[in-house]
Amino acid sequence: METFTYILEVLTYYLVDQYWFPIFLIGSGIFFTIYLGFPQIKYFKHGWRILSGKYVKNDTKGETTPFQALTTALSGTVGTGNIGGVALAIFLGGPAAIFWMWITAFFGMTTKFVEVTLAHKYRETLPDGSISGGPMYYIENGLNMRWLAVLFSVCLLLMCLGTGNMPQISSIAVVMNDTFNIPKFITGAVLAVLLWMVIIGGIKRIAQIASKLVPFMAFWYLVGSFAVIFSNYENIIPSLQSIFIHVFTPTAAVGGFLGASVAAALTRGVNRGLYSNEAGQGSAPIAHASSKTENPIEEGMVSILEPFIDTIVICTITGLVILSSGVWTEKFENRFEESAMCYLDGSYSDSNEADISILQNYILSCSGPLAYSGEEIIQEGILSNSSITLMHNRSVSENVIYNEDGTLYSGSISIIDGKLSTNNLTVIGDSLLLGADLTSKAFSRSVFGVYGQYIVAIGLLLFAFSTAIAWSYYGDRATVHLFGERWIIYYRIIYVGAFFTAAVIDTKIVWDIATVIGPIATVPNLLAILFLRKEIKKMDQEYLINDSIRG
């Protein structure tokens, strides 16, 4: 497990923490925005008109309506990225990460327009009558690059497990356990059965459920969010200011938060923005390819609404909930996860400026000379050596207790290179929170009080489960492209199995997998749409000339 964690850390460093990926992702969006004359603005209003269904003809090729295609795609994007992902971005990059999420979303609206339009044009009708489309088809048929199409399909299958599947049930299981004391394996087992019952029906059943579920869950979550924001109305303006103040300056240490660099805000904001709205990732075009929209350009217009709804609206509201409540800088009692723990040699405090500067160099990993190794004594659950600092979730832990089988532990522990190697111990203490746990605490700072956590729990259940449903279809189409239709059943079995497994394993590892896989799949898709830039330009011009925008 340690080796696997190390590999994830290395991949995260090169694929996520470097400037090249945000530059490539946002740069592609900027290029197409200028190249196509700001389609996210000129087509925004008409996208809503098409969504109403007034231009849909019954005999038009497809399996879903534009509204069903949009809600299916939204069910794939509106998930843990909106509840837990925003919290993670703030946790890693500070308030300024939200600004970079906005930037990613604005230019991502154009990227989404391009990839969806191409996916709709190059979609295929399979022998069983179903529609199959997505980047793998416009790469193979539009560019005649079978090898790159295969590479994308393989990456997409990995994304389906590492992005659309495992983080979703992991977040659900954690929140249901913390809120309702439901064991993780029970949550995983029940939802795995429900997931199978839905995905076995294919895109038509998925679209039908998504079209009903997405509007309800969005209303549920937004009502609760506004209650939190208005309960902390005095912090709304300062929260908005904090987003912009630290865009080009590092976020200072506040409370248990040790600060964040400009690079961390940018890279994590972009990565969370991508994880949230999936613009450029190539997943949502698969859902839109099934739409009965007559002109591919018009389906592209519908897709422009996704990043707007998902990131600019919902993610912003989540960010304001977390910032206005102040919970992002506070420590709360929680169960420590092994992968997020790091023992440092020396006694350090997050209230001492000299210590903070030292700790900032070690919050990304346990590597370096400060990582502690040795044997230590635990007495009645307390570590006797006060000259050791335990970091958890990038914060100095407090009030740490060691348990074994529900009772206070007494005995020795072994620490190797900053990591606890003694098994079967439960470590509980105060530290910063991340993901859905952080959002849940924010919701308790409202008129709902402790009941606010139930809003998050139910919202997360709906969001994350709908995401897992949508992503099952994306992997379904990738499987068809790689192996043929008869392999779909085997893929679905693996998908449901991974769904259950992720409910009971380390949450941080699941999130790390999701963080790494996104950029891996995004690169071939972005390269493909750049190669097809002249084609999308021609399609756009022909639409404006021949059809014009219907008033």
Structural descriptors:
551 residues, alpha+beta, Amino acid/polyamine transporter I, four-stranded antiparallel sheet, 22 helices, 13 strands, globular
How would you describe this protein?
This protein is α+β, with helices and mostly antiparallel strands. The protein folds into two domains: 2-330 and 442-546, Amino acid/polyamine transporter I (Up-down Bundle); 336-431, no CATH class. It has 22 helices and 13 strands. It has helices at 2-15, 20-35, 39-42, 44-51, 66-77, 80-93, 96-121, 135-142, 146-162, 166-180, 184-199, 202-231, 236-245, 262-277, 284-288, 296-325, 353-359, 435-443, 452-483, 488-502, 507-531, 533-546, and strands spanning 124-125, 131-132, 332-335, 341-345, 374-379, 382-383, 388-392, 395-396, 398-404, 407-408, 411-416, 419-420, 426-431. The strands form four sheets. The protein has a four-stranded antiparallel β-sheet with strand order 3-13-9-10, with no helix packed on it. A four-stranded antiparallel β-sheet has the order 6-5-11-12, with no helix packed on it. Helix 4 (44-51) crosses helix 16. It starts with a helix and ends in a 5-residue tail after the last helix.
Instruction: Tell me the major beta sheet.
Output: 4 strands, antiparallel
Strands of the largest sheet, in order across it? 3-13-9-10
According to CATH, the homologous superfamily of the largest domain is: Amino acid/polyamine transporter I
Enter the CATH topology name of the largest domain: Amino acid/polyamine transporter I
Just name the CATH architecture of the largest domain: Up-down Bundle
Which segments are poorly predicted (pLDDT under 50) over 5 or more consecutive residues? none
Shape verdict: globular
User: What number of domains?
Assistant: 2
Q: What class do helices, strands and sheet pairing give?
A: alpha+beta
Number of strands: 13
The amount of helix comes to: 55-70%
- The rounded Rg comes to 23 Å
Using the coordinates above, name the CATH class of the largest domain.
Mainly Alpha
Mean pLDDT: 86
Q: Span from first to last CA?
A: 59 Å
Strand percent estimate = 5-15%
Count of discrete alpha- or pi-helical segments spanning 4 or more residues: 22
